[in-house]
Amino acid sequence: MNNSDTICTVVVTYNRLELLKQCLQGILNQSYPIDKIIIINNGSTDGTGEYLKTLNLPQIEIITQENLGGAGGFHTGIKKAYEYGYGWIWVMDDDVEPFTNCLENLLQFKEKSKCMHPLRIFSDNNEVFKWEHYFDHRTCMPIIHHNISLENKDYCYVNTACFEGMLIHRDVVEKIGFPKTEYFIAGDDTEYGILANLYTNVLYTKKAVMYRKRTVVSHKIRPLQAYYEYRNLFILRKNIKSYFPGSFSSMFYKNLYKDCFSKIMTVLKGKEYSFSEKKLLIGKMIKGIRDGKKIYKNK
């Protein structure tokens, strides 16, 4: 198969069975026909595997693997969809649910972009997740735009990606390959979008919408987040350096330490954190930076 208009959806799931069910329902309800749905089960232990065995739909394929994080899941899924020959690959985590016309509205922009993203709205309060930002390759930090470009326009261009609804064409995948598993979580889609932007205008539109689900509304920093967000900044810097030679700034370290200090102070002052949690999180941040430096030096 190598039909430029065929659609394969890739969903990565891990221990969020109820959210996965809602996500799949949203996919199956799409107004634009989907040819294939590949579900990557990252070793879930909450009954997800048993539930997936009950799905008896010819377009659904289940791949169960050990927990390789979101990065490993999307690597497997995008690679499989590409090898099958599908033209468009629509990727998402299990905690989103696309509106019925989400895919149809994304495809309205296929002449403008081969890598597109929908607007996301938090389902618990209908708040818009203002994702618009521009990645600064000198500092490896985002420049936040707060969706200002969408106030008077239906779409804008960014230079990065998000695996919560990204629709990408196989022509771009052919050039940039598959997401790198070394990230585990955090940063894999950022790099993927940076590379995609070298070959197409990466588009973000408010005409296509999906819900982003939250089981608990919390701003607490998680241990995995504390570690991988900092470690992976160095992986990101290492991986994109060859595309932007000589353009890296000393601001990378200044911004890194400023951000880390800010998060440490947030944890220390946060009444929602116990003493053991504070100790764990700060240790994870520091270890993430140390491990990241080692990875970067071994480039």
UniProtKB/TrEMBL annotation:
Task: Respond yes or no to whether keyword Ribonucleoprotein is given for this record.
Answer: no
Keywords in alphabetical order, please. Transferase
Tell me the ranges covered by the Glycosyltransferase 2-like domain, including all copies.
10-176
Recorded GO molecular functions are: transferase activity
Q: What is this protein called?
A: Glycosyltransferase, GT2 family
Read off the lineage from the record: Bacteria, Pseudomonadati, Bacteroidota, Flavobacteriia, Flavobacteriales
